Each structure stands twice: as C-alpha cells, then as structure tokens.
Amino acid sequence: MRAKALTLLWAISAALMSLVPGTASAAPEPWQMHFQPAVTPVMEQVTSFHHFLLIVIVAITAFVMLLLLIVIVRFNERANPVPSKTSHNTLVEVVWTVVPVLILVGIAIPSFKLMYFADRTEDAEMTIKAIGHQWYWSYEYPDNGNFTFDALLVPDEELKPGQLRLLETDNRVVIPVNTKIRLLITASDVIHSFAVPSFGVKLDAVPGKTNETWTEVTQEGVYYGQCSELCGDNHAYMPITVEVVSKEKFAAWVAEAQQKFARIDEPSVDLAAAAQPAN
Ligand SMILES: [Cu+2]
Predict the structure, then answer these.
(1) Cβ-count burial of 84 within 10 angstroms (0-12 exposed, 13-18 middle, 19+ buried)?
(2) Are 219 and 26 in contact (CB under 8 A)?
C-alpha cells in the first residue's frame, strides 16, 4: 500500500515536472522553473535526491493537512461539545518523536553520501583552476601547457546571434567530454562562488584558500554558470561559459590556446632585459 502511494506520488511529481517548459535543452531558458538538465554524475544524483525529498515533503504535508482537517471537522465545539481532558499519551508521544527522527536519518544518509561523492575525486585526469576576480573569472590549465586566460562578459551590443545575454564570455572554458576533471577554485580579491547548475557544481572562491571539487561531463555542448556569491557592483556580470567538446577537439584547442594565451610561469616582461642598466 505504501509502495503504491509512493509510486503514485513519484508519477505525479514527474508528470508535473514534464509540464515545465525548458527541461529538455542544455541552455537555461526564460521562466525556467526546474533544474537545468543534468550532464554530470553529481548533478544526476542531485536531481534524483531532490525528487526523493520532494516526495517526502509532499507526504509529510499531506499527512499534517489530514490531521488538521480531522481536528477541524470532528473536534470543533459543535461536533464535540464535551472535550476529553487527556493531557498525556506515552505511545503517541514516543511515536511523534521517533518517526521524525527516523525520517531525518533516512534523509541524512543519502545526503551525506552525495556530499562526499561531490566533494572530490581521487583519479582526476586533468586539473583546471578557476580564479574569481572583481568582476570576471580567469582560468589556468596546469596539465596542458600551464597557460592562463581571462573570461569576461560579452556586452549586449557585441552579442552574436545565438549567444545568451549576461551568460556569454569572450573566452570559453573548453573541457573534454567524459573526462574526470579536478576543479580548483580560488579568488584574488573578495569571495566569489563558481557555479554551473547543469554540472551540480557550486563552490565558494575564497581569497587565500583553494577549494577543490570535480566534474565529469557526459554530453558535449555549451553550459552556463554565474558567480553565486554577492561580490560587489558587477556580481551579475561575471558569467561562466563552458564548452564541452570531444577529446580530439580539446587537443586541437589546447594546441591553439598554448600559442594564443600567456604561460603562467613565463614573466610578461623580459627580466634579463629589464635588469640591464639603461644607458
Ligand atoms: Cu563574484
């Protein structure tokens, strides 16, 4: 009976979610109500954990509503003019203490499992470092030639057809598909937060501290994120644009990026020349 009710709730919530427009495409859409589609193992688990919680919440709300209705209908002054003087009932008190504890434990176990799963990966194939600045992100690719670049918002008047307003950057973070990537997140000035909803990644970028998480995107495409920690005037204007490509395309992009972008360990001024005494 309970299994049947849970299945029914599941079906209802799934049906309601399928009515919400914009659940099928990779890019966020105006008035989107539900999550962006999951493209990493972490986000898939976040989405199904959310569905599980929704069922628990609906069941608890319906149960409390039912109790309230019973009280209103059966125990109002007219229906029940002589109320009982009961003030204690050990069994009921034990039940209303133990059952919520069991529900919370039932939520906590999968919650902690997911938290540790999202926390870090042992066998990352490459590393990308994202650094938050007021107000843009810069990226470092230590395993692919140690180059670095900045990614700034494309202003409205420079948007090309197909580019999303406030979400497109001049340089995209390019990553290979089906590759475990360690993400190191930090900041240079104030606290920012690196968040890409369809990856299930949201991590604070704290000056003087490096936070670690990971991602493995299973579908090629372009995904968008934003700084998610109030960081000053232009907080809303430092988006994250990630392009997920095949491993071959990524190798080609790396070769190009090594020419195009600066190396981290290469000084921008020629130190030897600068040390020469001027005549
Ligand atoms: Cu920020």
Answers:
(1) exposed
(2) yes
For residue range 78-95, list pLDDT tens digits in order: 999 999 998 999 999 999
How many A from CA of 268 to the centre of ligand 1? 26
**Measuring CA to CA, how many Å separate 206 from each of 29, 193, 272?**
30, 8, 35
Which CATH fold topology does 2-78+90-119 show? Answer: Helix Hairpins (1.10.287)
3-state secondary structure 82-145: CCCCCCCCHHHHHHHHHHHHHHHHHHHHHHHHHHHHHHCCCCCCEEEEEEEECCEEEEEEHHHC
Q: How far is the CA of 102 from the centre of ligand 1 (A)?
A: 39
Distance 231 CA to ligand 1 centre (A): 5
**Among candidates 65, 63, 28, which has minimal Cα distance to 196?**
28
Return residues with CB closer than 5 A to ligand 1 (ion).
Answer: 192, 227, 231
Residues 196-242: tens digit of each pLDDT: 999 999 999 999 999 999 999 999 999 999 999 999 999 999 999 99
Residue type, 67: L
d(CA 79, CA 108) in angstroms, rounded, equals 42
Could you tell me the CA-to-CA distances from 198 to 4, 23, 38, 81, 127 in Å, in that order?
A: 31, 11, 5, 57, 19
pLDDT at 264: 82
CATH of 126-263, one of 2.60.40.420, 3.30.930.10, 3.30.70.100, 2.120.10.30: 2.60.40.420
Q: Which residues pair with 245 in a beta bridge?
A: 176
